[in-house]
Write a structure and sequence with these properties.
three-stranded antiparallel β-sheet; 5 helices
């Protein structure tokens, strides 16, 4: 299964793990407008498309190049594999 962020809402922790930044950095990106966040009840969610937009193009290409046609991942680090396991 490919991770398509275009129509997903991520928790702040998921966005933090995906971008490999601190919680403070996520909050700063939201406050500066780099990341689009909404509040649902008491939780803040980050739009997946905005997470994708802050990734450098080369990282997105490298991530997509590591996915085989059958949905398996090649050259994924342990942290990437654990993140993928959480999402699937």
């Amino acid at each position: 299964m490919r991770v398509l962020l275009d129509h997903e809402l991520l928790t702040l922790r998921e966005a933090q793990r995906f971008l490999n930044v601190t919680r403070c950095a996520i909050n700063e990106m939201i406050d500066s407008g780099k990341l689009h966040a909404i509040t649902i009840g008491s939780q803040r969610k980050v739009a997946g498309w905005s997470v994708k937009s802050v990734l450098p193009d080369c990282l997105v290409e490298n991530f997509n190049n590591n996915i085989l046609n059958d949905g398996t991942y090649v050259n994924a680090s342990d942290s990437e594999l654990s993140m993928i396991a959480d999402w699937t």
